[in-house]
Amino acid sequence: MPDSNRLGEFLRANRARVDPKEVGLHAGGDRRVPGLRREELAVLAGVSVDYYARLEQGRERNPSAQLLDALGRALRLDLDARGHLFRLAGLHPRLGPDNSRDSVHPALLRLLDAFPTAAAYVLGPAFDVLATNDVAAALLSPFTGPTNMVRVLFGHPRARTVFPDWPALTENVVHALRLNAGLFPEDPRIRTLVADLRRDSPRFRTLWADQTVQGLTRMFKVINHPEAGRVELTYQTFDVRDAPGQQLLVGAPEPGSRSAAALAALAAPARGLAGQPPATGRPPGEAPEPSGR
Fold this sequence. Notes:
This protein has 13 helices and five strands.
């Protein structure tokens, strides 16, 4: 096997990790090596045995994305390993629609409430608000109706009032949405969102045509809340590794500042009484759990 055959080495190592019984194959007989035989993996991936042998031996260097996707499924690779497989072959995976991106893991829901003094929420690939903690729910309360932040920014009548930095904020979100559109080109929600706003919003249409791509990172945001007044937050964005496309955003005020006091007072009614622990993180619009549960 050539020294430069990193793709073949990766395939061979992962083939050895798959228990034949886990993929419905009989594990008996004379098996000199652990895992799947070459011919078994070839059948599972829908490719000829000769082609797969040449690929693993480094004699075939240009596998298609469809073949790599089939091999990844047959080898039961997770998303990280699948992406690595594509990169070894000189390709980049195209991530299709995945319903798991709409569901927030219970552990992440609990994590939201680990930020009792900050606004924490989870966004999907199209920037749908999938879950919030009490602080974020209170902070977003001026926006009834849509729970998609791009639609809020470009379509809600109060957006420019609540977000005084609206021009910069809309730039950031469109640049980030274009990044997600490239990562998830088949996502129907992103496609519909872009089509709707290109039709309905001249501002969005102009920003989208600019072709700038940049993910959400650290940003300073000012919110003019109708009850709490001016709230200043520094936001940090974290990718959710086990749900590609989901992002956790946490906006924290300066400790001891007026913004910190305003956030605490704003979230207090949702918690029952000021100072009580927050309710479990939940999807937007869902009622807090009863106290004492």
